[in-house]
Design brief:
The complex is a heterodimer. Chain A is built from 16 helices and no strands. By secondary structure, chain A is mainly α. In chain A, α15 crosses α16. By secondary structure, chain B is of the alpha+beta class. Chain B contains 5 helices and 5 strands. In chain B, β1 and β2 form a beta hairpin. The two termini of chain B are 42 Å apart.
């Protein structure tokens, strides 16, 4: 299945390498397991890694199912027909449409990559990617539960996240360059392939890409989880600007699920509401695992520019909305 | 990396998720509510993996299945071995007190009316709920009620002892520590156990003991301490 037989003689194939790796794992599992359990920092990091990965897995699978369905059923022309001609209007429609995909942010990256086409649908796809994890009903209900008696927080989160998504979509349609997107989707299977083949090949490809980068992101989040928070919280109290910047950075490094971040933000009672709103708006838009996944699905040049811009826009928009609403 | 190896890794991610669900170790990382979603995710991954393997076997005769595929940094797919190794082989343990963030598990105490406690003598209440009620319940439902709590012992630097419980909202990344200071006749018994001993205790929350200077940690007057086995699921939600 893998390669020509002559190649097998020359070097060890990846299949053999995988089998060796699995055998090594099976043999060493007990030792490694004890080693990890006996080191508090290491076991915390390993558990946080598993937490982020396992939590994201169902949402990622949902995302690749949707992206597979898009590959099988939605052509770029059909999408262009659904969206308004006016690019600004298309971006706005995509932003509000994000409310229809309940789930965490990991699922929306592969979906957006599939929707990403030329012209206005590219900007609309990116807007959708940013708004879907932030303004869907599940996340808003979680926010309302986490901040009882403060409905303004829910409103502010919804407004700020939607505004961030729309601003980023408009920025992309004005300044974005197609050549930054260096990762190409695989060629579609030959004409005449069944819908099932198209669907399963697209879902397979997107899962392998996104999950590999999810591993990078989850590992970074786990490492930072062990290394950062101890000293960060002590230097915050009272200062708005410092609080806003710190919470934005914290949202980036902690990489929490958008359905859980409201509860963490609610627990940081020593902070005023605006920095906590910044935390809730930045986290679902861009964090360390999303940056890694965007690099995997779109390419590094894209992720560097788009991720940085998203971080700045989300922080500024959330602060402004917070000043106006809270 | 060949396409066949990628398919196998895809299948293995699905299978190791299934192993984790069968063994119940997923509770170390996420909430029980995620169980059906994880079953579905595992099934989808296994189906996708098997479908790709079958498809390649069928057409292995006529063409090289690698053509037309993205070979841009395919080695990154090897990283999927890490979650496979973690989830199916290494199995990191649930977080303990030092892995959970030390912020109080209670949010801004916007006082509101909580539903009444369960009836009966010494009903079992979860520790995070007690912390929340002590800080924010406008009906003071805890006052004068004897309740039962479970958690692990946590020795304080000042010589006292706390009962702790790790609370997760969504997954282990957002774990927080809920705790109550122990006082009263049986607190010395609890203090006599080593760190991280699982206890079932009976007693009453001291009214007004949760105040902002102390991060709203309530004080619990203990009358009765029983040592218990570490539960299969150590988290509270």
């Amino acid at each position: 299945v893998t390669a020509a037989p002559t190649e097998h003689k020359r070097r060890v194939g990846s299949l053999e390498a995988l089998l060796v790796a699995l055998m090594a794992l099976a043999i060493s599992a007990g030792t490694v397991s004890t080693f990890v359990a006996n080191r508090s920092d290491l076991s915390t990091a390993a558990t946080v890694f598993c937490g982020v990965f396992v939590q994201a897995l169902p949402f990622l699978v949902l995302g690749v199912i949707v992206s597979g369905l898009i590959a099988a059923f939605v052509t770029a022309e059909r999408l262009a027909r659904w969206l308004p001609r006016n690019p600004a209007l298309a971006v706005a429609v995509a932003g509000i449409g994000g409310a229809a995909l309940p789930g965490c942010e990991c699922g929306s990256v592969p979906v957006a990559r599939r929707l990403f086409g030329a012209g206005s649908s590219g900007a609309a796809a990116l807007t959708f990617m940013l708004s879907a994890p932030a303004i869907n009903p599940v996340v808003l209900v979680a926010t309302a539960v986490a901040f009882p008696g403060q409905p303004a927080m829910v409103l502010a989160r919804c407004l700020a996240s939607l505004a961030t998504a729309v601003v980023m979509g408009l920025l992309w349609s004005r300044f974005g360059r197609a050549e930054w997107v260096t990762r190409k989707l695989p060629d579609p299977p030959a004409d005449g392939a069944s819908r099932w083949t198209v669907f399963s090949e697209a879902a397979r490809h997107d899962f392998l890409q996104a999950a590999a980068y999810l591993v990078v992101g989850a590992a970074a989040a786990a490492a930072l989880h062990v290394l950062v928070p101890a000293w960060v919280f002590e230097h915050l109290a009272g200062q708005l600007l410092l609080g806003v910047i710190t919470m934005a950075l914290l949202a980036f490094v902690l990489a929490l699920c958008s359905e859980a971040d409201a509860f963490v933000a609610a627990s940081l009672t020593m902070l005023p509401l605006i920095p906590r709103l910044v935390f809730l708006v930045v986290g679902p838009a861009i964090d360390v695992k999303l940056a890694a996944m965007q690099a995997g699905m779109f390419g590094r040049r894209f992720a560097l520019r788009f991720g940085t811009a998203t971080f700045v826009v989300a922080t500024v928009v959330a602060t402004l909305v917070g000043l106006a609403v809270l | 990396m060949s396409r066949g190896t990628q398919n196998l890794l895809l299948l293995l991610v699905g299978l190791s998720t299934a192993v984790m669900l069968v063994k119940g170790t997923y509770l170390n990382y996420v909430k029980p509510a995620l169980f059906p979603w994880l079953i579905a995710a595992s099934a989808v991954l296994i189906v996708l993996g098997v479908a790709a393997i079958v498809r390649d076997l069928r057409r292995s005769g006529d063409a090289d299945p690698d053509t037309g595929h993205d070979h841009h940094r395919p080695w990154l797919v090897w990283l999927l071995l890490i979650p496979i190794a973690m989830v199916a082989f290494v199995v990191p343990p649930p977080l303990g007190a030092d892995g959970a963030s030390a912020q109080p598990a209670v949010s801004a105490p916007q006082r509101r009316a909580f539903p009444p406690l369960p009836p009966g003598d010494a009903p079992t209440v979860s520790l995070p709920e007690v912390v929340m009620r002590a800080a924010a319940d406008s009906t003071n439902s805890l006052d004068g009620r004897t309740i039962t709590l479970t958690g692990f012992s946590l020795h304080r630097p000042d010589g006292g002892v706390d009962l702790g419980r790790v609370v997760i909202v969504c997954c282990a990344a957002d774990a927080q520590l809920a705790r109550a200071h122990l006082t009263g006749p049986a607190a010395a018994v609890a203090a006599g156990y080593p760190e991280d001993t699982w206890l079932r205790i009976r007693g009453q929350v001291v009214p007004g003991s949760a105040h902002p200077d102390d991060g709203f940690i309530p004080t619990f007057a203990v009358t009765d301490v029983t040592r218990i086995d570490k539960p299969a699921n150590t988290y509270a939600y």
